Amino acid sequence: MTGTGSLEELREREYLYRSEVNALRRQIYTGPVAGRSATLLGELARREEELGGLAAQRARAALRLDDELRGPASTGLDVDVQLRMTHVPTAICHLFDPARQPFVSVRVVNAEGDAIRRVRVTSYIEGYSARAVDTVELDCAEEVTIGQFPTLFSDRVRTITEMTAATLNVLVEDLDGRAEFHTTRVLRLLARTTAPLAVIDPSTQLEIDLSRYLGAFVTPNAGEVMSFLRDVAAVHPSRRLEGYQSGMEQVEPQVRAMFTALKQAGINYVNSVITCSPDDGGTRQRVRLPRESLTDRQANCVDATVLMASLLEAMSLSPAIVVVPGHALLAWETWRRSDEWRYLETTEIGSATFEEACNAGELLVRQYREPDEAATDLYRLRRWPLRRLRATGITPME
Fold this sequence. Notes:
By secondary structure, this protein is α+β, with helices and mostly antiparallel strands. It folds into 3 domains: about 5-70; about 75-190, Immunoglobulin-like (Sandwich), CATH 2.60.40; about 210-390, C8orf32 fold, CATH 3.10.620. Helices cover about 30% and strands about 25% of the residues. The protein has a 5-stranded mixed β-sheet with strand order 3-9-8-5-6, with no helix packed on it. A 4-stranded antiparallel β-sheet has the order 1-2-4-7, with no helix packed on it. Strand 5 and strand 6 form a beta hairpin. The radius of gyration is 24 Å and the shape is globular. The two termini are about 45 Å apart.
């Protein structure tokens, strides 16, 4: 899909097309498995690609406009502050590496040609965070860019149940007392129960994929999850859960037992399709923690995926979270570090057999390009093995 126009026209075009794609998502993902034909899934995959092209076109137009409006501030120091996230994912931001995913980037240039400058950069979210501080020494005409992510106060974050406005302060000080730069930016703090699958980087107007951080919502050590393993073992033919200790043929029966136990517990699918808007900071989804899904006896696609992944990880199996545009499903490794995967459509927990749910998952995956854990394209399939997420520091949030 091609076309040009003003930023407002491109936003409107993307919004309307995204609405059409969301309607098709609902038709597919909330309907019966029998209705998910390869033709319909192929049409959705094609439209997702076109939507990605529209999003990229809108991002380029927004970036051009931003470049036209931006100007340097100079007091002997040229300072440029770039907010990298307008919507802060409070549930997972403690896992971010400021070097790779800074919340704010501050570029400082020593504009003087005859003096070395000692500069301190400080940032904090008023009332919600500690201060992030970096001190650098700049030679004549030297430039440095500093990325910071102030540490949020955990007790304050727990009080955020809905999206909340906050103020970021950025202070750049010359330690010799000759110059000072202080600015503020308005941002939004997302609720702790919000899983941000993507955020928009205002400096590039491109979406940053955060879907891997769904791994933080996989909580195998939660008491409710560990207790539910008794119900899983009770429906297993051998009444034992051994992970990969037995033969390869013993892996699938354990996954089947988990699926059966959840059905018997009355876990039902609740319709909640992932949506996003070019103006709201990216893609996000309210997520029940696994213990909450077990208590509430209901789950959407993401809820059910992190619940099942939690149970499989607690059983010493190797699950993966699979994300496609507007949807999530489960994968499990057929043998220890084999990198061979089976897929399960988690929305079928209340209405289909285990075989039907697996067939639906396999059919969906085939409609997208081969999954790639290193992919950055939000409009393709991404598979995030929990064993790899844990190795990169994405740990359970509780």
